[in-house]
Amino acid sequence: MGRRNPFKRVLTMFQIAQFYTCVAQAILVFLRVGGVGVMEVPRPLALLQLAYHITMILLFSDFYTHAFTVKVSTLRFITLHPPVTHQPHNHCVHLSFIVVQP
Questions:
Q1: 82 and 95 in contact (C-beta within 8 Å)?
Q2: Contact indicator for 30, 43 with CB cutoff of 8 Å
């Protein structure tokens, strides 16, 4: 209820890393790399696993990009100028800020 989970970003990164390890495992199964007594998995199943995990990487990476990166279009530049006075030795200070809109 209005509270943000501080581990959401890290958990998403770990899930993406997990999918990369599953891709590596699917490649090894497809190439039939293993030791003695390793059960052979049919290659179409290894390709199915590879396609599934590549899809998961794409979906989670898209989520990560949209949820945890700041879009340039959401940035708004504001320039603050102090009130101008008509004094002969007026020193103006110009401050610029970047405001991120949610």
A1: no
A2: yes
Q: Which tokens go with 31? A: 């190439």
- Residue 82 is classified by DSSP as P
**Beta-bridge partners for 96:** 79
Of 66, 98, 61, nearest to 80 (Cα)? 98
Beta-sheet pairing, 75-80 with 95-100 = antiparallel
Q: How far is CA 85 from CA 5, 69, 88, 93, in A?
A: 49, 42, 9, 13
**Minimal CA–CA distance to 60: which of 18, 15, 10?**
15
Compute the mean pLDDT over every residue in the chain, rounded to the nearest whole number.
Answer: 78
Integer Cα distance of 80 and 100 in angstroms: 16
Residues 15-25 have pLDDT tens digits of 999 999 999 99
